[in-house]
Amino acid sequence: MEKVRQVIQYKDYFEKFLLAQPKKVQDKIFKVIEIIETYQHVPKTYLAPMKTHKGLFEARIKLGSNIWRVFCFSTKES
């Protein structure tokens, strides 16, 4: 699929978080990033706006009964 947006990280915070996760979790995180990059309209299951902070989103990664949330923002509307 063609990318409709690019996901980039700020400094090395995300990379440190990612590398501290087990391989299965890393794979799931990459899958969610791929969805965010390729879907024009990303389901709220994977990317939801924060109700309390306009312009801030949370990427949601769920594996089994565990959920990880990565805060992010967009530099333009996609």
Task: Give your account of this protein's structure.
This protein is an alpha+beta fold and about 80 residues long. It has one domain (about 15-75). Helices cover about 30% and strands about 25% of the residues. The chain has two helices and three strands. The chain has a three-stranded antiparallel beta sheet, covered by helices on one side. The longest helix is centred in the middle third of the chain and has 16 residues, at about 25-40. It is globular, with a radius of gyration of 12 Å. The two termini are about 15 Å apart.
Number of strand elements: 3
How many helices in DSSP terms? 2
Task: List the strand order in the largest sheet.
Answer: 1-2-3
The helix/strand order is HHEEE
Give the total of domains: 1
Structural class by helix and strand composition: alpha+beta
Give the SSE map:
Elements: H1 13-19, H2 23-38, E1 47-49, E2 56-63, E3 66-73
Antiparallel strand pairs: 1-2, 2-3
What tags apply to this protein structure?
single chain; alpha+beta; three-stranded antiparallel β-sheet; 3 strands
What does this entry show, briefly?
This protein is of the alpha+beta class. It is built from 2 helices and 3 strands. A hairpin with a 2-residue loop joins strand 2 and strand 3.
